[in-house]
User: Fold this.
Amino acid sequence: MATQAQIEANRRNAQRSTGPRSAQGKAVSSRNALKYGIEPTGLLVPVDHEHIDALVETILHDPTVSHLAGELEIRNYATAKYHLDRIEFAVGQLLESEDTVDSLRKMVVLSRFESRYTATERQLHRRLYPPVRRLRSQIRNRKAILSECRLIRKNLLK
Assistant:
């Protein structure tokens, strides 16, 4: 538990930690994420909201999607898929780059974003497509039961 003196010291320090104040400093800090090729502002490939909307419409009309899925979940799923495609594009660009050390550094950062979006995409996919998962599980169970029945029958016929 922080003491009152520590809380006051943190508040005083926070007053000094306000980020860049000059126009030049703000311009530099606004491009921090851009150097990794994933921030939408200033990129050659900006976020295409129409593409995300088209993905949402496709998923909404997919008969295998759970009828319990909300539009927000579907939009989040489509957005995660879209960003994964952008990351794949950025990695492809970095692989073609001449500066291998800088490219490797950027790919490490991109891999962090990729793992985050992949986890989100997988989690939402499980929620959106549960009937398909359940059906696959039932098919596996039936196959296992059939193979056991064949073994029992085979042993009975001996």
Q: What stands out?
A: The mean pLDDT is 77.
